[in-house]
TrEMBL record:
CDD domains from the UniProt entry: ACL4-like (cd24142)
Transmembrane regions: none
GO terms, biological process: cell division
Protein name: Assembly chaperone of rpl4
Record flagged with keyword Cell inner membrane: no
Annotated region (Disordered), positions in chain: 336-384
Length: 384
């Protein structure tokens, strides 16, 4: 869905104004700067309804204030009101087309295919202007801008790798954007991770492994509690999938352990834990590691517990990836045929709070040295 222009912009701003009727009752003596400061303060406190009131008041006073429009858009995106948010963002581009990269980054996320690429490129161009204006003493600000530019090139590459993969110049564009990203920020791990995906699409698995190793070397020893030091949670989940494509299950399990400690209610992480154990069980059959099949049995039990936890969390939180959960249900049913569940299986891995324990302690999932934590959890083993 591309951004809408014209009268829709006015409708979007009107919706911002009308979100709360009490917006007009805000102290009329507050300046626009004070209103925006209050808006940001409320956003930081996750008080989005109240924040929208102050942003709307600022727009009433200065309808062409791009900061007010941007904040209103961000608030509405957080509240799931995509169309009025897009209208505000488009209005920002009309008022200030050359400055303010944030609006283009948001529009790129909600546009499709080549239109999304266009928005990301406009955002990169705006960031380059900001970079050119920075004093040499602003090294930290420059580094932040360069990282955002590199990440924008990653987003553009991924569009040509997926939605626009049938474009005649798709492969050329992927290489072009990756090289631009490397030039602007050679230490961006997302660049190398995306390059690995491109190499896999080119059936160059060894080169893909080198790219993954390079990507992980840039952050594996950084502080996992500092989001500025490591890739995002979603990015690392994507890395797990990439590792599984490269048949590196042990590294995938180590990374999943770290992700599970950060968020033990991630449906995707639990599903990937289960899928990794399931793949390991198939390896055991192929290699005949254990003639009595006990290793395979334990791996399948661990896989089942992880899949069941993913299904449970999906039901709790209204998870919207029906295909993934349906696959998890199918795998649980298949495992039940090979390894009929017992009362022990039903109780296994359950904590007093009803959540499963750390699956990294299950069969085949010993803690990886690269991702080991100092935490000394009393987690119960799954699948034992």
């Amino acid at each position: 869905m591309g951004p809408r222009r014209g009268d829709a912009v006015a409708r979007g701003v009107k919706k911002v104004k009308g979100k709360k009727k009490s917006a007009s009752a805000i102290n009329a003596e507050l300046s626009v700067d004070q209103l925006l400061a209050k808006t940001q303060e409320l956003m930081d406190d996750n008080s989005y309804d109240k924040a929208l009131m102050f942003a709307a008041k600022a727009i009433e006073l200065e309808e062409n204030n791009t900061q007010a429009l941007l904040l209103a858009a961000i608030i509405q995106l957080e509240s799931g009101e995509v169309e009025p948010a897009i209208n505000c963002l488009v209005r920002c581009t009309e008022i200030s087309p050359d400055r303010g990269f944030e609006k283009y980054m948001y529009l790129g996320q909600f546009a499709l295919e080549l239109e999304a690429v266009r928005y990301f490129q406009l955002g990169v161009d705006a960031m380059q202007r900001d970079l050119d204006d920075l004093a040499q003493s602003s090294a930290e600000q420059a580094a932040t801008l360069k990282r955002k530019m590199a990440e924008a090139y990653v987003a553009m590459t991924e569009i040509y790798l997926t939605d626009c993969c049938f474009e005649a110049d798709a492969e050329k564009k992927c290489e072009e954007y990756l090289q631009r990203g490397l030039l602007i920020d050679p230490d961006c791990p997302e660049i190398y991770q995306t390059m690995a995906s491109v190499r896999l699409s080119q059936e160059r698995a060894d080169d893909a492994r080198e790219c993954v190793a390079k990507s992980m070397s840039l952050w594996a020893n950084k502080d996992p509690n500092d989001p500025s030091q490591i890739p995002s949670y979603e990015n690392r989940l994507a890395l797990v999938r990439l590792l599984l494509e490269l048949n590196d299950k042990e590294t995938a399990l180590g990374l999943l352990e770290q992700l599970q400690k950060e968020d033990d209610e991630s449906v995707d992480a639990w599903y990937l834990f289960g899928w990794t154990y399931h793949l390991q069980s198939e390896d055991n059959v192929a290699s005949s590691v254990d003639t009595n099949g006990s290793d395979k049995t334990e791996l399948l039990r661990s896989a089942r517990e992880c899949f069941k936890q993913a299904i449970k969390l999906a039901d709790m939180f209204g998870y919207d990836n029906d295909g993934l959960i349906e696959h998890a249900r199918e795998l649980v049913a298949a495992i039940d045929v090979d390894v009929p569940p017992s009362a022990e299986d039903d109780d296994d891995g359950e904590e007093d709070n009803g959540r499963s324990a750390n699956p990294a302690t299950a069969v085949g999932g010993a803690e990886s040295d690269d991702f080991a934590s100092d935490d000394n959890d009393d987690d119960v083993e799954m699948g034992s």
